[in-house]
Amino acid sequence: MKPVRLLLRVVVFVLASGTALLAQAGWENSVVTIEVTSKVYDAFQPWNDPTRAVRKHGLVIGPGEILTTAQNLPTHTLVRVQKGGRGRWYDARVTWWDAQTNLALLTAEAPAFWAGLRPAALAGTVARGPEFELIRWRDGNLEARRVEFGRFTVGEGVLGFAPHVQLEVATDLNGLGWCEPIVSEGRVLGLTTHSNGRVCGVLPATFIARVLAAQRAGGFTGLGYFDFTWQPGGNPELLKELGLDGPPRGAVVTQAGREKDPGAAPQARDLILEVDGFAIDSDGDYLDPDFGHLMLENLANRAHFAGERVKLKLRRDGVERTIDYVVPAARFADELVPRENFDAPPRYLVAGGLVFQPLAQPFLRGWGDEWRKYAPFRLQYYQFADAPDGRDSLVVLTGVLPDAINLGYQDAALTVLDRVNGRVIATLSDLAEALDNSSPGGVHRFEFMPGRDLQRLLLDAATLDEATRRVVEHYGLPAASRL
């Protein structure tokens, strides 16, 4: 027999063996395909409502219940499910989703869809590999591929900003992050959420199980976070100044959070020594009994949810004390530049061709996957700084639709609005009210934050409404505003 033909037979045998193992494991009866059609935000034309369809995986976890990631679901218009990797699609309904955990539950009403499907089991512990299997439907066939254990880490979710434990696996596979199950010995260890080169992020099964248990019991209040900022306590001189003897340890608070009561929250220059009984080392880490050394941020959600109390042992003014810190809920609305806004369609206001939108991260992501590199720094700056006058949101001039009224201002864009007709502007409603009031001198005066050469802009007040109607008609906008 020729060597090439022999090699082909070996390959066919190996593939057939892999398929047989999958069939024995029964994953084809637990892993389903999900198609989500959702609205997509158009950063520079927010009045548009384009849609796109993506396919991801789901995991049957109970009678009439499918677990998947929340990505693409908050703005969905249609969800369908398919079993067996091919054939008929069935309409599905989202029964629950949460952005901070990036988890969602679906169901399908058609009894025919559930015939032959069976729940998968979530692993009670997630070991350190060294290898796992990744399961996915590909071209109508169920595929199992090896992935390598990377590490446990703590980070923000794909949709939310509440830090929690995550698993990283290494793989040469492309196109991952669509809720592919990571499995070992017949149990699910986690679900993929994203990939970056050879590294693929995974939500661990233990984290998923705890969230689902609370959600089913009606006690899930959402993920929380430590709203104070800190730095590792590795500087011996700083620790000595704070009155700590012995080897370096702990985390030094650099800025207090929203709670200003020193008896209920850490204050600047506090040294955090323990959180919930876990000692904090000089890197700001603690030793987790399940995952090894992790950043202290994970302790906001390790055994708690938002609104629950965490015991913080800290050193303040040379004296050790313990406080009960209430973990605040991670809410997008609390951010000056929100990561997401799923509560309403994209908002905008057009005045005389000037296009205004709330300053939010979805707009910044309009610069593409590398938006942190290419989006204007003067806009990104507000993700890390407080706004003047204590306002809790900002409005940005995102573009200009050319018209006679704005002649000479066509390049005036991507700058944050400060005041209109002397009124401080924090929301589009503020802007609308400021434009409704009569303007002294017959002009509307727009003033902007420092950051560009343009500091102010004037539009004729008498003809503004007429110009706005003209712009709406000429550019085919559905309305002049969506507040």
Topology summary:
Blueprint lengths: L2 H23 L5 E9 L11 E12 L2 E4 L7 E7 L7 E9 L4 E6 L2 H4 L16 E8 L2 E15 L8 E7 L10 E4 L2 E10 L2 E6 H12 L12 E4 L3 H6 L9 E5 L15 E5 L2 E2 L5 E4 L3 E4 L13 E8 L2 E8 L21 E4 L2 E5 L2 H4 L6 H4 L2 H4 L14 E6 L14 E6 L2 E2 L3 H9 L6 E6 L7 E5 L3 H12 L5 E2 L1
Antiparallel strand pairs: 1-2, 1-4, 2-3, 3-6, 4-5, 5-6, 7-8, 7-10, 8-9, 9-12, 10-11, 11-12, 13-14, 14-15, 15-16, 15-19, 17-18, 19-20, 21-22, 21-28, 22-23, 23-24, 24-25, 24-26, 26-27
What does this structure look like?
The chain is of the alpha+beta class. It folds into four domains: 22-114, Beta Barrel (Thrombin, subunit H), CATH 2.40.10; 131-216, Trypsin-like serine proteases (Thrombin, subunit H, Beta Barrel); 229-326, Roll (Pdz3 Domain), CATH 2.30.42.10; 333-482, N-terminal domain of MutM-like DNA repair proteins, CATH 3.20.190. The protein is 16% helix and 36% strand. It contains nine helices and 28 strands. Strands 21, 22, 23, 24, 25, 26, 27 and 28 form an eight-stranded antiparallel sheet that branches. Strands 1-2-3-6-5-4 form a six-stranded antiparallel β-barrel. Strand 7 and strand 8 (141-155) form a beta hairpin.
